[in-house]
Amino acid sequence: GLVRSAFYRGIIAAETGHVREAVSRLSESARRARNLGATADDLNATQSLAGVLAESGRHRAALEAFIGLVPLIEGASRRTRGGFYNNLGWLLLQWAELHPEPILLDRAYDLFRAAIDPLSDAPLSLANVHTNLAAIGLAEGRLADAERHLARAAHLDPQGDSFGHPYALLLEGQLALALGELHRADTAFIVAQEVAEEAGGPSSDLVWRALHGRGRAARAGGRRGAALAFMTDAHTRREATVNATGVSRGRAPFLRQ
Q1: I need a labelling partner for 202 at 20 to 30 A (CA). Which of 11, 22, 50, 69 fits?
Q2: SS3 at position 163
């Protein structure tokens, strides 16, 4: 009906970089779903709306959208609750990247931990949760924890089918770089770049991040010319991504179910 028609139009608009139309369509879908008492459709539309708002830099509005779902989430299925916790944690993790505050990472960590049990029968979704936990481990310098969570994500998603797989590859490179394993880091960044380029859409944001990682690895290895080339390419790709999608300079992938 009209609820899902507006939802799909909003998703298409978001994926093609038409932020204003995406916000309008997803808001319409959420409003219609709420008026009809269609809780599942309301949850889907509002969480997608929050993702678009966050990527356009409107983090407070995104958080308010999530808060509005709290009364609905208690009666939802276990898997839906797990996805909600993971998505809200991801929003806080993204916010923490732009505004480094320990409390944001602490709250995100608690939400990701809360998502594990409800998603225990959904391996790909659970892989995304462990990828997000690895990101927090890296941000806080807990490299052993980060490696453990990345290994768990790889075990749950051996074929690389999860939404967060390209991001997990990027984290693998960052972890190796932090450990001083430059060859491992460069290899991981190369694969992350290839997978992100193939996936396209939101994953295109990861292309310049992978190139930036390759630049850092080259610089650490004393390859100054290669480092400059990678960094320059990363900057060019970054600006192209922002200009093409209208999203913020935060990480693009948001909905990790």
Answers
A1: 69
A2: coil
